[in-house]
Design a protein that fits this description.
Layout (H helix, E strand, L loop, with lengths): L1 H20 L70 H4 L4 H4 L54 H6 L1
Length: about 160
């Protein structure tokens, strides 16, 4: 048993050494090439910044959702909004449960008040849902990056949803 193991190790070492000693000849066609072409060292250019639609909140009609649990797109500009921090979230000044009626804006969803681990409804918004821009993106008018045949799921009508 020891001799056969020793023989196998010697054969393996010999073949590895012979492969390392004779480098394979590469032809021009089989040489490694970059997918970017010959100029791979040039930095990628950032795409042009897209202008957000709906300058003032409430001035732009929202885009219909493609499926029921899709986060809505932000239908107003957010360029001049303060950065969302743990201490401050400017979105809540209009969409929070205390102000949404007064501001005539949509209220943040009930899912934002659900504890992710236990599923219980909390009085305060979940800290896991504090960063709005993590799921909600500003609405822009731009063509798709790639061709797409995606068909959204038709949304149930409000009356049909209440009957269920």
């Amino acid at each position: 048993m020891k001799n056969s193991l020793r023989f196998a190790l010697v054969a393996l070492a010999t073949s590895a050494f012979s492969l390392a000693a004779t480098p394979p000849a590469l032809s021009a066609e089989s040489a490694v090439k970059s997918l970017r072409g010959a100029d791979a060292q040039v930095s990628d250019q950032a795409p042009e910044e897209k202008i957000q639609l709906g300058k003032r909140p409430g001035s732009q009609k929202p885009i219909a959702r493609s499926f029921e649990q899709q986060p809505p797109v932000i239908p107003h500009a957010t360029e001049n909004f303060d950065e969302i921090t743990l201490e401050e979230n400017q979105c809540l000044t209009c969409h929070g449960p205390e102000k949404y009626k007064e501001k005539k804006s949509p209220r943040i969803g009930d899912s934002h008040f659900r504890n992710q681990q236990t599923g219980e409804i909390m009085k305060q918004m979940s800290s896991a849902r504090h960063n709005c821009m993590q799921c909600h993106v500003p609405q822009v008018d731009t063509p798709p990056l790639v061709d797409n045949t995606f068909q959204g799921v038709p949304q149930p009508k409000a009356a049909a949803r209440k009957k269920q």
